[in-house]
Design brief:
Blueprint: E1 2-7, H1 13-24, E2 31-37, E3 42-45, H2 51-54, H3 57-62, E4 66-69, E5 77-79, E6 83-91, H4 97-109, E7 115-118, E8 122-125, E9 128-137, E10 141-149, H5 154-160, H6 165-171, H7 194-206, E11 211-213, H8 215-219, H9 222-231, H10 234-237, E12 248-252, E13 255-264, E14 269-277, H11 282-292, H12 309-319
Parallel strand pairs: 1-2, 1-11, 3-4
Antiparallel strand pairs: 2-6, 3-5, 6-10, 7-8, 8-9, 9-10, 12-13, 13-14
């Protein structure tokens, strides 16, 4: 097994995420990749999230910022120059979240700090979140990516992100600021000096020297240019969400879900369903949508025997 390192020299989120998606789509069964990148003034939302519910879109764009929809689940996060992002792109047979989290934790703990993985996708330092993570399974490889909050502008985070009261209540706190922490407030961490520590931790974890990939070569690939166009298109970013109005909503242990139903009142049939969620499992959200479309609006459809069937049951329980 080989390991390789990719470091972005750009802060445009559409470029950075296009490169990530390109790397994920490669058939390289013997190579583990660590990709490091930064975005400028960006709210990144999960694939199933409604941008208008997650951030102040007009204010963000007026301030020269970006809305970025990723191809993984999870919730909305804010990126700026004080935030370093990492991506592990790993062939299926070598994918191990414990090892990948270990790289991040080892690098941060080299500053004398204590870290712990919490819940479904957070990493904490001194009891407060500095890293949120999300996951995706591609055809050939798995993706595990996340954030490292080093010296982010917490005031901007609060200005651009809309955090739902149910989520704050669940965490037992009164504000976004009380949940997150800049690592630079705890130790002399910078977006520059943490990079060699991440590389060292990566090489130690996998026991070999990382090969460095030229970023300019990557972004010159026609496939990457096409992905950039897709990621920045209004259809992908906003599409069907402009007129989304949640008719049903609930907060579960696995995440928040909101539903909008287009119902044929005469025949009591659900014609169309939109599901907004910060749930990490994209497949189970799609299964729930398929179950609901064409079903009776007064009689709950049978739940198939599938992984995470409990999530589907939770979603159906909001309506029936």
């Amino acid at each position: 097994m080989k390991i390789q390192l990719v470091i972005s020299n750009q802060t445009n989120p559409y470029v950075n995420v296009a490169v990530e998606n390109y790397l994920l789509g490669l058939d390289v069964a013997d190579t583990v990749t660590l990709y490091l990148w930064k975005n400028r003034r960006t709210v990144v939302i999960g694939q199933n999230q409604n941008p208008y519910a997650e951030c102040n879109v007009d204010q963000l764009i007026a301030d020269g910022g970006y809305v970025m929809r990723r191809r993984t689940g999870g919730g909305a996060v804010y990126h700026d120059d004080g935030n370093l992002n990492f991506s592990f792109i790993v062939p299926h047979e070598f994918y191990d979240q414990t090892r990948q989290f270990s790289v991040l934790q080892r690098a941060v703990e080299s500053y004398g700090l204590h870290t712990e993985v919490s819940g479904r996708n957070d990493v904490l330092c001194e009891g407060r979140k500095f890293s949120g993570n999300a996951f995706n399974k591609g055809k050939y490889q798995h993706l595990h990516h996340g954030t490292i909050l080093i010296k982010g502008n917490i005031e901007d985070l609060q200005r651009y992100l809309k955090v739902k009261p149910a989520k704050l209540k669940k965490h037992g706190v009164a504000s976004v600021q009380s949940r997150v922490v800049n690592l630079s407030d705890l130790a002399p961490v910078t977006a520059v000096n943490i990079v060699p520590r991440l590389i060292e931790a990566f090489e130690k974890e996998y026991g070999s020297k990382a090969e460095v990939v030229d970023f300019d070569h990557l972004i010159a690939c026609p496939e990457v240019r096409q992905l950039i166009q897709e990621m920045e298109s209004p259809e992908w970013l906003f599409g069907r969400w402009k007129n989304f109005v949640a008719q049903y909503s609930a907060q579960f242990d696995w995440g928040l879900v909101e539903l909008h139903l287009d119902v044929d009142q005469e025949h009591s049939i659900i014609n169309h369903v939109e599901i907004a969620s910060d749930g990490l499992d994209l497949a189970v959200i799609e299964q729930a949508r398929q179950l609901l479309e064409g079903a009776s609006s007064v009689e709950r459809p049978d739940v198939p025997q599938v992984d995470n069937a409990g999530v589907i049951v939770d979603i159906l329980s909001i309506i029936y």
